[in-house]
Amino acid sequence: QVTPVESGGGLVQAGGSLRLSCAASGRTFGGYRMAWFRQAPGKEREIVAQIAWNSVWKNYTDSVKGRFTISRDNAKNTMYLQMNSLKPEDTAVYYCNRDPPQNDYWGQGTQVTVSS
User: Fold this and answer.
1) What element of type H or E holds 38?
2) Residue 22: what pLDDT?
3) In what order do the strands lie in the sheet with 68-73?
4) Gap between the Cα atoms of 47 and 33, Å rounded
5) Beta bridge partners of 71
6) What is the mean pLDDT of each run of 10 residues along the chain (116 residues)?
7) pLDDT at residue 103, as a whole number
8) In whole angstroms, what is the distance from residue 92 CA to residue 68 CA?
9) What is the enclosing helix (H) or strand (E) of 23?
10) Bridge partners of 112?
11) Is 64 left (phi over 0), alpha (psi -120 to 50) or beta?
């Protein structure tokens, strides 16, 4: 089964920054709306940011507005999430997928841990 590959996570102090990457594997990103999702321990997976196929439209969950920026490079079949001013409540495993998500296209995710 081919799934996307997320990377760029790590351990960072509150107020720090990370840049996540999502590389398509087996399925093209082009022409599809994409999104970043996250799942914190003991919580359900939630959508964090969405981006239209041509990057004209972007949307963010309220808790990350003004701090996170979603972008994509269709030529490279890659999507990004720039995360600034990180907070401990941003700690989660971050995933990428099409939007709406395809059930058979979840990758391993990348762990983001923000210490206080």
Assistant:
1) strand 34-39
2) 97
3) 5-7, 18-23, 78-83, 68-73
4) 13
5) 80
6) 90 98 85 96 97 97 98 95 98 97 93 97
7) 92
8) 14
9) strand 18-23
10) 10, 92
11) alpha
- For position 87, what pLDDT does the model report? 98
What is the per-residue pLDDT for 1?
58
Instruction: Give the separation between CA 44 and CA 76, rounded to whole angstroms.
Output: 30
* pLDDT at residue 28, as a whole number: 79
Query: What HEC string does 43-112 produce?
Result: CCCEEEEEECCCCCCEEECHHHCCCEEEEEEHHHCEEEEEECCCCHHHCEEEEEEECCCCCCCCCCCEEE
Yes or no: say if 50 and 70 are a contact pair by the CB < 8 Å rule.
yes
Of 84, 53, 88, 47, the residue nearest 69 (C-alpha): 84
Q: Cα 68–18–80 angle (5° rounding)?
A: 60
